[in-house]
Amino acid sequence: MTAFVLVSGGYTGGWIWRDVAARLRERGHQAHPVTLTGMGDRRHLAGPGTDLETHIEDVVQLLDHEELRDTVVVGHCYGLHPALGAVDRRADRIRRLVYLDAGMPGDGDAAVDVMPDPAVRERLLRRAEDLGNGYVLPPPPLEDERLWGSLALLPEAARRRLEKLAAPQPLGVLTQPLRLTGKAAQVPATGIFCTANGASIAVVESLVASGDPRFRALADPRVGFFDLDTGHYPMLSHPDELTDLLIRAAAGEGRRLGEPVGHPRPSTA
Q: pLDDT tens for residues 81-97?
């Protein structure tokens, strides 16, 4: 049995993991979806002081209060920032960190700083100022996939649920820099890429091949990868497939860079 801590991305909450959490439990695992302060059904708790440290503490407190060990922590999109911060603080209790269609922030990076498109960053900050009293970011319309990410292959019912339950995002969680000690870098990791959203193992291979030292860690044999042919919300579009990949990630499976396609080997971690 593996304990999975599931940290959701922007505008959502623990509700988004409902189908995946149910499938993990059916297969004998623990599933702990996290609703971060000021998001989901905790949106009423958002305030000017809600920041990334608040969200990191949300995840840390869950790990502590549930007394979880040998845990797999999954961070989707923005949720990778608080997930990574919590793993850095409780690294001795974490089996693996899963980057679910998320970037690779480092020490000192704020979520808005690692967004690849400066125009998107400016739009977000303007929306918070114009529509959110300067400290919350109202959810954009679903038609704006530059801000939501790809909604490819979402069933209509899931799309309606996403639209209905979308919550404002506290702005401070996006602008406060992530602070890391380096302990999280010692935890084995898995990247799951949603190819319809533009990421893939092939893209990562090209980044590593560029020789940029920022991407050197991706070639570590403790790091595995999977591609999933869907949009940015696989927990809604492909819950069965995502559940399978999370269980395989927990077991140390996944493609290692430099290995032939179709011949992934288990991790020795």
A: 999 999 999 999 999 99
